[in-house]
UniProtKB/TrEMBL annotation:
It holds the Pfam family MFS_1. This is MFS transporter. The keyword Nuclease does not apply. Its main location: membrane. It is a multi-pass membrane protein. Residues 17-431 form the Major facilitator superfamily (MFS) profile domain. InterPro entries: MFS (IPR011701), MFS_dom (IPR020846), MFS_trans_sf (IPR036259), NO3_transporter (IPR044772).
Length: 441
């Protein structure tokens, strides 16, 4: 029954294809958040940067990531996800090409601090791929029914987010084997190839395909609903942004995401290679491997985290996750031992990964008719946390010296406790409204 309807309207694709192409796009695009993190110590030494300046360079890709996530996430509610994905991936290709060209032209003999502004510029441009996260959330969400949102988004974010971890491990290996410039060239080739594959196979959900065929909103919604689509946009880009912005729960989720992911997971993904190299004295390849463990593990645990959120409720899972984050951050704050630090890293990665799954399980629940807009605000404003956290971590080093690499984690510990309290308050408020029978998104 379903297939004839698809054929009748010339529709293509299916939920699993929508999920896996979005995951591929995120995997490739999100690698750009570690444009400089993978080789942070090399850039610090060659460019003669202070700890704070290194933090600014490492965080530069996160500027465009944060700014672009808001409009591009909301734009999905108007045009679907494929077009925004391709524009963002194209910007990242240009930025990474600029960095690669700079390395071939100037590294190592002509490297100095005068090149810092250009590297910042290309870092900002290249970081556009990080904005694919808020595009892929609604693109994936619109393919699946509400009861499968946590599971689908857990797979999307879990597998997609391992991209930076893989690069944290692979790029140092390539640097050792073929040199810094050639390693970045290899990264560029991969990004182009992944973008081409996405362009060929990615497809938007049935509603957007119908709208592009000039079927009006209500008819498109009715047809897509018969085909299994369960979540729909309420309007265009600005309507989605305005509607989601007027819902106070959006801003609660923004803050929780800021600490767990924007200022937490992505910040540490970019910071850990430098932390393990300059604080624990490890080689670049060993530090990259350990940082990759954090990123891949913290990403993959989002998959069961999404299932647990569907089963036990996003609020409950979030509370426990933020408590776990606080404990891991405290361990990292007080220890200089590499083995204990590794344990603390795994603990904080566990909390961050599961917290992210819980937060996005709540998006379709609290803002069901503006998922794209809400995802844009959450991913964009929340993603800006990296712009603050990494320079703060670098500043702790400037102030306290070597031990500052450890002491900086106290900031994350304090913010994690605050998030646990906020998540608990959100749970109580939701329970009260449910008890009165007045809860509405």
């Amino acid at each position: 029954m379903l297939q004839p309807s698809k054929d009748k309207y010339g529709l293509t694709g299916y939920p699993q294809l929508g999920l896996w192409t979005s995951t591929l796009g995120l995997f490739a695009g999100l690698t750009t958040i570690v444009l400089y993190g993978v080789a942070g110590p090399e850039f610090k030494e060659s460019l003669g940067l202070s700890g704070a300046m290194l933090g600014v360079l490492i965080s530069s890709p996160h500027l465009s990531k944060a700014i672009l996530r808001v409009p591009f996430g909301a734009w999905v509610d108007e045009v679907g996800g494929k077009k925004p994905f391709l524009i963002l991936l194209g910007c990242s290709i240009l930025g990474l090409a600029g960095i690669t060209g700079m390395l071939y032209l100037y590294y190592p003999n002509e490297f100095d601090e005068s090149l810092f502004p250009l590297f910042l510029l290309f870092g900002v441009l290249g970081g556009a791929g990080g904005a694919t996260f808020s595009v892929g959330v609604p693109k994936t969400s619109y393919w699946f029914p509400k009861e499968k949102q946590g599971h689908a988004l857990g797979i999307y974010a879990g597998l997609g987010n391992i991209g930076p971890g893989v690069l944290n491990y692979v790029i140092p290996l390539l640097i050792g084997a073929i040199g810094l410039a050639a390693a970045y060239l290899s990264w560029l080739v991969f990004l182009i190839a992944a973008s081409v594959i996405f362009a060929i196979f990615a497809v938007d959900s049935y509603y957007f395909q119908l709208v592009k065929k000039d079927v009006n909103h209500e008819n498109a919604k009715s047809i897509a609903k018969d085909l299994g689509q369960d979540v729909f946009p309420s309007g265009g880009t600005w309507i989605s942004l305005k509607h989601s912005a007027s819902n106070y729960r959006t801003w609660i989720l923004v803050f929780l995401y800021t600490i767990s992911f924007g200022g937490g997971f992505t910040a540490l993904t970019a910071w850990f290679p430098t932390y393990w190299t300059l604080f624990h004295g490890m080689g670049l390849m060993s530090a990259g491997l350990i940082a990759a463990v954090f990123t891949i593990y913290g990403s993959l645990i989002r998959i069961p985290g999404g299932k647990w959120s569907d089963k036990f409720g996003g609020e409950n899972v979030a509370i426990l996750s933020f408590v776990t984050m606080a404990f891991g951050a405290l361990v990292l704050t007080i220890t200089s031992d590499a083995y204990v630090s590794f344990f603390g890293m795994i603990v904080i990665g566990t909390g961050m990964g599961i917290a992210n799954a819980a937060i996005f399980e709540l998006v379709p629940k609290y803002i069901p008719d503006a998922v794209g807009g809400a995802s844009g605000w959450i991913g964009g404003v929340g993603g800006a946390g990296t712009l603050l956290i990494i320079p703060i971590l670098g500043a702790f080093v400037d102030i306290y010296g070597q031990i500052g690499y450890a002491r900086g984690f106290i900031v994350i510990a304090i913010l994690s406790v605050l998030c646990a309290i906020i998540a608990y308050a959100l749970k109580l408020n939701t329970q009260k409204k449910n008890d009165r029978g007045t809860f509405s998104p």
